[in-house]
Write a structure and sequence with these properties.
alpha/beta, TIM Barrel, two-stranded antiparallel ribbon, 34% helix, elongated, metal-binding, Enolase-like_C_sf, Enolase_C-like, RHMD-like, isomerase
Length: 127
């Protein structure tokens, strides 16, 4: 059984400790926690240095593009509830095709933009 951990890593040192201890078979990083794109790329570079694969934690719409950009990436965690929320909030959410998330290379950056959908779930008092 492969052991994956690191999804609650916030700093490069958090990932280093897991890798140096040999505590994980796969490092899991979450760009929404570890310093965005820079932190995710740092985790990937550490994985490359230690010869350990990288798995992206949750937020599949964001991580599909990031994971595609780094060599040690092997997984993007995919939860139906995250995909539902992402599709309400963003345009450019990658489609799942034969078990693969395929980012749209014609979209800039991470490929996402705010959609405006989902506003019906937000209420604001105007009194």
């Amino acid at each position: 059984m492969q052991i994956a951990a690191g999804e609650y890593g916030y700093t490069p040192a958090d990932f280093h400790l897991l890798l140096a201890a040999g505590a994980v078979d796969t490092l899991q990083a979450d760009a929404t926690r570890c310093g965005g794109v820079t932190g995710f790329v740092n985790a990937a570079e550490q994985c490359t240095a230690w010869g350990v694969p990288l798995s992206a934690h949750c937020a599949p719409a964001l991580h599909a593009t990031l994971a595609s950009a780094v060599e040690p990436s092997v997984h993007v965690e995919y939860f139906h509830d995250h995909v539902l929320i992402e599709s309400l909030l963003f345009d450019g959410v990658p489609e799942l095709v034969d078990g693969c998330l395929l980012p749209d290379p014609s979209r800039a950056g991470h490929g996402l933009s705010l959609s405006g959908r989902g506003n019906e779930y937000c209420t604001r008092s105007t009194s």
